[in-house]
Amino acid sequence: MEIDQLLEQGRASGQHGRHADAERAFREALRLQPDSGVVHYNLALSIAYQNRLHEAVGHFVSARALGQPRQGFQETLFPILVSLLQEPPETPPPACAALEDNPRVSVIVPTRDRPAMLRDALASLQRQTHANWEALVVNDAGADVAAVVDAAAGDVRRIDLPRQRGPAAARNAGIRAARGSVVAFLDDDDLYAAGHLADLVAALRASRAALAYSGVELVQERVTDGRRVALSRAPFLPGLRYSRPLLLVRNYIPINAWGVRRDCLEEAGLFDEGLSYLEDWDLLLRLSRGRSACPTGRTSAEYRVTAQANDSVTKRHAHRQAVQALYGRHDAGGRELVQLARELYLESL
Questions:
Q1: In angstroms, what CA-CA distances link 310 with 185, 186, 190, 316?
Q2: C-alpha separations of 301 from 259, 297, 343 in Å
């Protein structure tokens, strides 16, 4: 049978869900033409549909090497790599020492030129069911926020930076002034649900992990005449299990989801003030090196994006060169799947 006939037969079998039959046809085609990227690609798909993902990856790689057009790899190979990179490690990282009962949580709130949004962020803090918290509002040389901070209930302190220094330095100033054994982060335009801090503390205490994190809702909003209007809501990158190998490819845990043990944060080092963006991802990779992280299992933070507004201290879109530079800081550790996923992620940017 000719190659074209075998490919047609295999594709027809696959369309009817007969993936084992499709595999047999594509293997016969591969025997006849072992250097065909098209055959390797179709064989990879038929194997993947049978949930033999590791085996499928090898044929996807061969297809790429043989010049198979790359537009399909984002839809096929990248999700497979994401799934494989979430497989649990053979040896879990060591647990941290037990966290005390009712720890104080220091919430770092960087802000610049958005007092109305800052008021909303602090109001979401004041609704927390975990009452033992403090807030460090770090004004990165923006408009005066003394009135907003003074009007806020609870233990809220203000740090005014004399000149604009950027998000990493603003957060570091807050961390250095913090008194809690757990550190959390809240941008001035984001919000917490009432149980957010309680969930983080419970997860840290139960898991003895270095980092706990919540689910996050992405909220697109518009500000009209000073009024915030939510345009859309959607889970932010849902369904992903915690995985350091996957974090080495992309950051899927926004900073406002984090609750970090102070001792582990000091061990990893603070934010790199030489980075103008991706500083949160850089720190997350340092925190997760040799330490575990634990999801709370709840969505309790809102990551808000405002159209046509001044950017907050953190809202900046990463671009290809920035991601590539971060990969240079944190190597793949010899993991071939991580390296391949990185290549595909860069191609998508």
A1: 20, 17, 14, 11
A2: 12, 12, 31
CA distance 1 to 20: 18
Q: Could you count the other beta carbons within 10 Å of the beta carbon of residue 17?
A: 10
Mean pLDDT of 158-170: 96
- Between 184 and 309, the higher pLDDT residue: 184
Look up the CATH superfamily of 3-68. Tetratricopeptide repeat domain (1.25.40.10)
Assign residue 224 a region (left: φ > 0; alpha: ψ between -120 and 50; beta: otherwise): beta
What does the DSSP assignment read for 46-60? Answer: HHHTTT-HHHHHHHH
Beta carbons of 107 and 125 less than 8 angstroms apart: yes
For residue 15, the SS3 value is helix
Domain positions in the chain are 3-68, 105-318
CA–CA gap between residue 202 and residue 129 (Å, rounded): 12
Burial tier of 194 (Cβ tally within 10 Å: 0-12, 13-18, 19+): middle
Residue percentage of the chain with pLDDT more than 70: 96
pLDDT at 224 over 90: no
- 86-117 pLDDT, tens per residue? 999 888 899 999 999 999 999 999 999 999 99
Pairwise CA distance, residues 17 & 91, whole Å: 37
The CA–CA distances, whole Å, from 288 to 48, 200, 253 equal: 30, 17, 12
Pick from 46-60, 156-170, 306-320: least confident? 306-320
Cα dihedral: 127, 131, 133, 135 (round 10)? 30
Strand pairing report for 211-224 and 293-306: parallel
Q: How would CATH label the architecture of 105-318?
A: Alpha-Beta Complex (3.90)
Contact 59, 40 (CB under 8 A): yes
Mean pLDDT of 125-147: 97
